[in-house]
Amino acid sequence: MSLFKQGRYSGYLRPISYIIDLTIINGIAIFYLLNGKDPIIFSVIISICWILLSVYSQFYEVYRYTRPINILSLIVKQFILFLLLVFAFAGLYHELNIYPRPIVKYALLCFILITIFKFTVYYLLQKYRTAFGGNYRSTVILGLNKKTIALENFFNKSPEYGYLHKKTFNFKNKEYSLEECFEYILIEGVDEIYCSISELNNAQIADIVDFADNNLKILKFIPDSKEIYAKKLRYEYYDYIPVLSLRNITLEESVNKFIKRVFDILFSSVMIIFILSWLTPIIAILIKLESKGPVFFKQSRNGFNFKEFDCYKFRSMMPNKNAHLYQATRGDQRVTKIGRFIRKTSIDELPQFFNVLFGDMSVVGPRPHMVSHTNMYAKKIDKFMVRHFVKPGITGLAQTSGFRGEVETDKDIIGRVKYDIFYIENWSLLLDLKIIIQTFINAVKGEEKAY
What we know:
Subcellular location: Membrane
Protein name: Putative colanic acid biosysnthesis UDP-glucose lipid carrier transferase
Organism: Winogradskyella sediminis
Membrane topology: Multi-pass membrane protein
Pfam family, one: Bac_transf
Structural class: alpha/beta
């Protein structure tokens, strides 16, 4: 199991930054700009606009390798946009009597404090990495040339950026094989792989991409004159060294992660309060009347970053020791009469809204598999592990596209993985809503593979 685990790093820094910055702009407005006037309208509108401006200007897109001059550029850009925004607000709400000079002073004061906070966090993190050795990501480089040597020097001579370089592999004269590299990466628990395109042929690149996907490793390329054929590439700069990211996972962005989590909490809360609160006693009675055993069925499954969690369902089978090993099949004798109904209508999945509320799952995402099946598919199905870059879902794009239920052939799981990866790379709130609506329609109509 440890073969597929990978260290993940704190996702709380950006949400905390949002909260502190919003506290600054609202606090200064209340005590300086509004002079005792009702702050509710100002706070709501300015806070929403601040978040939208931040997304547009990429104000919070600051990474460990971002240079201070780029951070300052983001601050100036956000300051200008914010100043124009407050002027526009003052023009719309004349009754608040906000004048131009106080607006300029207010915006300047806000950005002085926000600048101090932003750079303080930036340098404290660098100090934390150099002094205490925390917040590090271990790296390897595949290929040896001037560019990779420059990147290796950057990793080794700039510990404040939080990279612990393990090894650079030289493929000239067949000094190392890819298999040896992969074995080293797994044994050492390497987090990120950097590849020189000029040192690798197309077959090797394909093997590295597959290895990174199947083992949850972050893969980046050091570009040269060769062309790279990939769906989504993003340039980043480590000092002055260009690096390409292969897969851009939308849900790794803090704003999108926050939006999805808020949606999950609201949606699951509504389902629990207005549906499960009265439906659970009815289903419980029907289950108990037909067979002895618990009302709820708990099964260990793999979720985000391959972490195991207990997935809850209404029990639809007779209690049996093979429930954790084998999926329900067509005509399965283990399934009870009430079980067939709740499985056909997907009612058996409703307790998973508690999993969503607890943070183990999302309303929409790749469906989690039993641990035994995950281990099996991870070894035989290409890119299967990519599904674990995000939280699993109660429903997903694959399920609404005809790939739900029993996996009868490899074609079923390959199709499921294809749709799951598309979802991960193209997530949007509208896509989630579309999948939820389609899931509801399918539940009402009934599905062929819901047995």
